[in-house]
Design goal:
The complex is a heterodimer of chains A (about 180) and B (about 425).
Chain A: H1 2-58, H2 65-80, H3 84-105, H4 109-112, H5 115-150, H6 154-160, H7 174-177
Chain B: H1 2-35, H2 37-70, E1 73-75, H3 82-95, E2 102-106, E3 113-116, E4 124-128, H4 129-134, H5 137-152, H6 155-193, H7 198-242, H8 245-256, H9 286-289, H10 295-303, H11 311-322, H12 354-368, E5 372-375, E6 381-384, E7 392-394, E8 401-403, H13 406-420
The chains are: A mainly alpha (about 180), B alpha+beta (about 425).
Chain lengths: ~180, ~425
């Protein structure tokens, strides 16, 4: 009888433990989702700003049709992307197109004096910063969540209830990765 | 981050206890000397506690609005300075705060900034117009990150409380010493009538005087020591947010090279600014009697952070520059973290002429003061003061006549009236 009681107690304790592990995982997954939605807001904001930018610069940059088309294409691809990995890839391309564009802008002093352009440029810079700061937060959350899923004992609970690892949001930032070339 | 706040709390508690003891001691000594005997000491103790309690309550609930108003800070909307708004938004995200602080601009040419508010939900960041006119985007971001770090680390609340404690001690000792000057005669008359403890009363009197002179100085030194440490910590957290130490470093450099005086700062609010606005006085004793670490040192520490932007990197840079093993950051936060530095976001810096900076500064100040801007076809920007009454204005350069949008102007001046109340 006592043996049976002890058995019941152990089962109940394990049950509570599993529930708490499960709840912890759900909480973490929601945090990851929340962090992602913050990035998404900023990505959408950037996609909304780009047509305005193109409209503003079109008159000035008649000879840079290709650069502008590249941006428009990269934008529509980025808007069409669904999964986190696809979005990361598309956004990296968009980043590349944008940075090329801002290099070209240096050749147009008239444009750089245009108030409308300057305020759009400020909004874009800020949005890009916000993406990068919220990306950091998102990746921290994903790391934490993935660790929990892989580590014992929460990995058993994760396996039972189908918690899947999330993908990091990595954007190639050309300026960061570039190693300066040294020539002799 | 949470542990950092915890460690701050522990240290703050120790300082509070020390300052509290000083407050109670000076209260009781002053009471004993002024009113005489044990009852006098008790009365002094009671009055000191009441004074401290009232001042603390006031500063907790309306401290930040008092500080903002004596600093002549005005709350602004996004259209006054969009870049400032964007940067505060960015740093709100980077610091992980749930609510964006309110933004204030101080209409002065001296570059400086401070943060206030008892908790992150009730916080505000104030910057001077001179700061906005002189700094580029990265530098401004560095300064705002430093201020947000004060908000996140709860420095503001702590410094307010410590400041109130310091203020109470100063008030009591001042009242006591003045009371001695004016009421000294009468109290000695009382003494001679009940002169069974004349000798003892004399000793109490002398101790009280010595204490009244020493206590404010000691309390001030304690206050300064903690304040300096918090500046380093805010630099470290700020860099962790922006991942760009050079931004803050060159901002500090520009701020320290400034020669214009910040008129709206005083002894009480000086400790809150990013760089000491009253730097002219007390140059020699700066290490002990300054609320801020020497700027040159802060800059050197920031510039020697080459590997990353974590707290560990800052601590290492600090040790390398100072050459001693003082810990600035609680050990619990000193873990290996990979936070890569980022490169500048600004396009290659264009030489901004001094004249343009001056004009920008003037424009910004007028915008904060609710002037209306009209651009003429000839390119001249006209600034209409908020109390302008006529419906037409002529361009001073080409003479074209313009309609003044009176409703807009009225709305703006209505705003002034409501803020001036």
């Amino acid at each position: 009888m006592t043996f049976f009681l002890i058995f019941i107690v152990i089962i109940v304790v394990i049950g509570f433990y599993v529930v708490s592990l499960y709840n912890g995982l759900v909480k973490l997954r929601n945090q990851v989702k929340n962090a992602w939605s913050q990035i998404d807001v900023q990505l959408k904001r950037r996609h909304d700003l780009i047509p305005n930018l193109i409209e503003t610069v079109k008159g000035y940059m008649k000879h840079e049709k290709e650069t502008l088309e590249n941006i428009t294409e990269a934008r529509s691809r980025a808007m069409g992307a669904d999964s986190v990995a696809d979005k990361a890839k598309a956004e990296s391309e968009l980043n590349g197109a944008m940075s090329k564009f801002f290099v070209v802008v240096e050749n147009y002093p008239d444009l750089k004096a245009n108030q409308n352009f300057l305020s759009l440029q400020e909004e874009l810079t800020s949005t890009e910063n916000k993406i990068s700061f919220s990306r950091q937060n998102y990746n921290d959350q994903v790391l934490f969540y993935n660790n929990k899923i892989q580590m014992f004992p929460s990995n058993i609970v994760a396996g039972m209830f189908g918690f899947k690892e999330e993908v990091f949001f990595e954007i190639e930032e050309p300026k960061e990765r570039e190693v300066p070339k040294v020539q002799f | 981050m949470w542990e950092l706040i915890q460690a701050n709390r522990r240290k703050s508690l120790l300082l509070f206890i020390l300052m509290g003891i000083a407050l109670l001691l000076i209260g009781s000594f002053a009471g004993a000397a002024l009113f005489g005997g044990e009852n006098g000491a008790m009365l002094g103790l009671f009055l000191a506690t009441i004074l401290w309690f009232i001042l603390t309550l006031i500063s907790y609930f309306s401290g930040s609005s008092i500080i903002l108003s004596i600093s002549n800070a005005k709350e602004v909307t996004k259209d006054v300075h969009p870049q400032l708004f964007n940067i505060v938004e960015e740093m709100t995200i980077a610091a992980g705060l749930s609510k964006m602080p309110k933004i204030y601009i101080i209409n002065e040419a001296a570059p400086n900034a401070f943060a206030t508010g008892r908790n992150p939900d009730n916080s505000a960041v104030a910057v001077t117009a001179g700061l906005l006119a002189r700094l580029n985007r990265d530098e401004l971001q560095g300064v705002i990150a430093h201020e947000m770090a004060h908000v996140v680390n709860r420095d503001v609340l702590f410094m307010t409380f410590a400041g109130v404690m310091l203020g109470s001690i100063v008030i009591i000792s001042e009242v006591f010493i003045r009371g001695m000057w004016f009421g000294g005669g009468s109290s000695s008359r009382y003494k001679s009538k009940s002169s069974d403890g004349g000798q003892g009363q004399m000793i109490v009197m002398i101790v009280a005087i010595v204490f009244a002179i020493l206590a404010p100085i000691l309390a001030q030194l304690l206050y300064f020591a903690i304040s300096r440490k918090r500046e380093y910590l805010a630099d470290a957290s700020g860099v962790r947010f922006t991942r760009y130490p050079e931004g803050l470093a060159s901002a500090l450099e520009k701020i320290s090279s400034n020669t214009v005086e910040l008129k709206s700062a005083n002894k009480v609010t000086a400790g809150m600014y990013i760089a000491n606005p009253l730097k002219k006085k007390g140059h020699k004793l700066s290490d002990l009697t300054s609320t801020h670490p020497p700027i040159s040192e802060r800059i050197r520490i920031l510039r020697s952070m080459s590997k990353g932007a974590s707290y560990l990197d800052y601590q290492q840079a600090f040790a390398a520059v100072k050459g001693k093993k003082e810990s600035i950051i609680p050990t619990s936060e000193l873990k290996e973290e990979k936070i890569t530095l980022r490169s500048t976001t600004d396009q290659p810096a264009q030489e901004v002429s001094k004249k343009k900076t001056q004009r920008d500064l003037g424009d910004l100040m007028m915008k904060v003061n609710n002037y209306l801007f009209l651009t003429c076809v000839c390119g001249l920007k006209m600034k209409i003061p908020p109390d302008y009454k006529k419906s037409k204005v002529n361009c001073p350069r080409c003479g074209r006549s313009h309609d003044v949008p009176l409703e807009e102007l009225a709305a703006l001046s209505g705003m002034i009236a409501s803020t001036n109340k």
